[in-house]
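Example complex used in Figure S2.
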Amino acid sequence: MDRRIEKSRQAIMDAFTKLMLEKDFEKITINEIAELANVNRGTVYSHYVDIFDLLNQCIENHLNKLFENCQPRGNDSSISGKDALCKTFNYLEQNAFFYSKMLMSKSITAFRNRLHALMVKSVEEQLDMNGITTDGNREIMVQYFASATIGVIEWWITNSMPYSSEYMAEQLLSLMERYQNVTAPLTRS
Amino acid sequence: MDRRIEKSRQAIMDAFTKLMLEKDFEKITINEIAELANVNRGTVYSHYVDIFDLLNQCIENHLNKLFENCQPRGNDSSISGKDALCKTFNYLEQNAFFYSKMLMSKSITAFRNRLHALMVKSVEEQLDMNGITTDGNREIMVQYFASATIGVIEWWITNSMPYSSEYMAEQLLSLMERYQNVTAPLTRS
DNA sequence: TCGATTTTGTTTATTAATCAACATATGTGA
DNA sequence: TCACATATGTTGATTAATAAACAAAATCGA
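Predicted assembly (378 residues):
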């Protein structure tokens, strides 16, 4: 792809993310973003229809990175479920400022919705991948695991990460293993 | 000016400076520079005729910053000659890696020549500014002060800055004050 | 509330950057 | 020494980014 596109997108997204950390979303203007990104205002509009589109793509980028982190590498299962989960918590820790802002913002509902949707999808994939069948209702089970995991993550982030990422991965894994052989809603063991 | 020009120049110059620090000038290629700067190779050629032009402009940029540092601020002489000289040594310290490379490189003669020329010009300006007249030969005096100052700077840089910049400024100032009321070849008192 | 300022979103002409292709030059290893 | 690879410098067609200008909407301050 034309490297200009990549550079502009990166500069705009970086500027937006930076502004997100230091002020409320409602206070951020396209002007500010363009100025900080050092691109023309028109360039912003050529990549994003408006600031909400920018927000959504920003969320999408971050959540993609989040869920990438918990995919076992390639075909070799050299990385265990616990390792992958640990990597995920490490990633969250490194980007805690961003995720904290997203979870605590009153005006941003898109983030929670998208996180939940992606988590549900991820849990379903893990169930399929591990060939898990259950007596109970599958739909409900998926919702159960997804919400449980998000709840733990949200609590950990918004409470300034009181435990290490290793410990969190351990505990979450242990909780999930109690019920089914679903070793992790995000990863396979 | 079109911000694209500024951004491209900056990216290219940054990449070149970075490469200068980690390898010899002769080993640096335009391809490398373009790659590291993340610009098309043609863009490099649209700003610089060849790698020697790039080197010269790089030297020019750095030396301009060097001599900017020792100009007293604006019209108010709130910053004394010593302070300005101190700022100059501080700047040299911060960019010691670059200046050391330049001074020690066998293949780069342009840097020493340009440094000497700018130093001579600076000494002449300081003489004029302070209205200094002397019995001796002015030309020779200018050469004397210019070479003396460069010699001290070169020794300090290539010997890993054995004294603090404050001390160096002090000592150099004191040496120059012994002869004329030329308080500093780089600054006015 | 009202006037002023800022922001938004869009358009247009212009320009810099891009990619691909090329011939030439330089250098490198067998 | 001679292929082979890499680097140089240039060209032309295409595209993304730019600045400037604009009307409309939103925000702000008095």
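The interface with chain B takes residues 3, 7, 38-40 of chain A (CB under 8 Å). Residues 23 and 87 of chain A are 29 Å apart (CA to CA).
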